[in-house]
Amino acid sequence: MSEASPKKMGFRSRLASALKPKAGKKLTKxxxxxxxxxxxxxxxxNQVNKAPPTPVQQKKPINFYNKNTTGVQAQTGExxxxxxxxxxxxxxxxxxxxxxxxxxxxxxRTAWDESRKRGESMIASLPPGLWEHITSYLTPTxxxxxxxxxxxxxxxxxxxxxxALNLPENRQYKCDFLLPMDRLYPDxxxxxxxxxxxxxxxxxxxxxxxxxxxxxxxxxPNPKLQSKARITPGWTLPFSLVQLAFRAExxxxxxxxxxxxxxxxYKCRSSEWTxxxxxxxxxxxxxxxxxxxxxxxxxxxxxxxxxxxxWREDYTPYFSVCAHWRDGELMNLCxxxxxxxxxxxAPITQQLKSGPAIHLxxxxxxxxxxxxxxxxxxxxxxxCPTEYLIELKLTEDKNDPDPFNRFKQAxxxxxxxDLGDGRSPESPEWKACIQEESSGFxxxxxxxxxxxxxxxxxxxxxxxxxxxMLSLNPANVKEGEEGHNWY
Length: 487
Prior knowledge:
This protein is an alpha+beta fold. The protein has helices spanning 11-19, 37-49, 73-76, 82-87, 98-115, 120-125, 128-135, 140-149, 151-157, 160-164, 171-178, 239-250, 302-309, 330-339, 348-354, 360-363, 428-434, 443-446, 452-458; strands spanning 188-191, 196-199, 228-232, 235-238, 264-267, 274-282, 285-295, 378-380, 386-396, 407-418, 469-471. The chain has a domain at 263-482. It has 19 helices and 11 strands. It has a 7-stranded mixed β-sheet with strand order 5-6-7-10-9-8-11, with helices on both faces. Residues 124-156 form the F-box domain.
């Protein structure tokens, strides 16, 4: 009998045998461990006596190019991330390339060439010896202005042109060089004796004050060298105030003071004279008018006339005068005007006390007085731009308690002067008004046919009666204080 062939297995049988677990691979659950109470208590006691373990933090890679990175490692420049290290070798911005840098350099060069003034390239091409020959004909002020005009001239001439301005003999040239810079320094003022800009102490509050009052405009180591013009006894006009008035007129109120702030009305401390000053701009020049008034009696002897006219401290007139008042007929004209004042009113009862004679002219003296042909005309100083007018006016004396004697005759001396353009104390008009020595100024040639008085009064609509204009010193005698005609 033949051996039986093996029985073929179907699909289901093969699938079941494949999914049948192998021997020894059977998953079984382990039984839970036995609970040990004593071991848990001992373990808890040991944990109390020990410090808690510190958690270990994983180090993060530091990005050196991250601006928000802080710490010590951010200052060392170390890179912990390899990917970031590889990317750092690349150019992050395009302008770091050589082509972009060269393009930027060429653009800047073109912009600088366009900002330069036209002709500088031609100036630089000329030999330096030629410019040295040209500048030898210039003053130190023009030489410094040329070097200050552009960079090319500064490189050709060098800094020596500015050092030359600091020499004592070039002080006036230095002032001429610094004066156009007034627009740049509203808080400072140019001091001509020092040739530097000083800071203003009382900005906007500078005023004319009495000489006995401390009134500094700026701190200057040479206050005695400041140029001043005499107005009346105890009152002077510093040139620095003239500067401030012109600066406010040219550049604005921040640079100086209004010219109206210089106007003043005051009474003399040592006499009965009253003064009124006023200033006015005309065609770039500052005009001054000073009106001085004092009550006077008639028939005064010469000694009383001198007592009325002269200040006892330095024997100068109480009214405003220029520096050449001694050379001429000014004081003689004032004495002549005083002699025209009639004697005071004398009633008949008072005349009978001295005798039986009665003079009706003394009872009612003239109210309106006309001066003679000698003292009536206006006078002009031949050496400075100054004009004088002497008048007698009937004025009310409000301090007199007698109501019948309240109106009195008063002598009025008016002075008009041209103080110049205010740029420097060396201006011809200012220098001629304050300097006793002759400066070569001819007022009859410099001034027009219209007098200063008419020019000044025309701005307020006042018309001065027509007067002849004569010279204050027709004989052209210049004796000064040595002569005796002034006293």
